[in-house]
Amino acid sequence: MPASADLKTSFAPVASAGTRLLVLGSLPGDASLRRAQYYAHPQNQFWRLMGEVVGADLAGAAYDDRLATLRAAGVGLWDVVRTARRAGSLDTAIRDHEPNALAGLAATLPALRAIAFNGGKASAIGRAALIRADLGADARWTLVDLPSSSPAHTIGFERKRTEWLKLTPFLG
Q1: Of residues 44, 45, 69, 100, which has the active-site annotation?
Q2: Domains of the chain by start residue, with CATH
């Protein structure tokens, strides 16, 4: 059985009644857990990509300012996994996961237009959780699969940027 240090827990959601776009990762990596911040690994491209989406320099901003800018733009953050065992930070190492209550959160967001999944693992777990809650094909929300912002996903930034910019219309 894995050591208890391998048990990882997600953060609380960052969302409000004005959230129009909910971006879901899989589970915070070790660097994020150590700093208690979403996407804290310096090579993760999340803040650069979301900066392109919302038109702000998020990568160069302080963490609290990053979150405030996302909230003001109507963007929420959370993860699809509540708890799991995982040695290290790779999504492929996630074991024995329990999903977050995605449908419950989405039901509290009256302005929600889209749910985006940051990477394949987030999409697989998140879509399955929504389907189990009979919300997998909910016409109120568009479900968007994105290439992972993780440095482990090695396609180039420009290709990721092209896909992530497809989120912009949901914020208008």
Answers
A1: 44
A2: 4-171 (3.40.470.10)
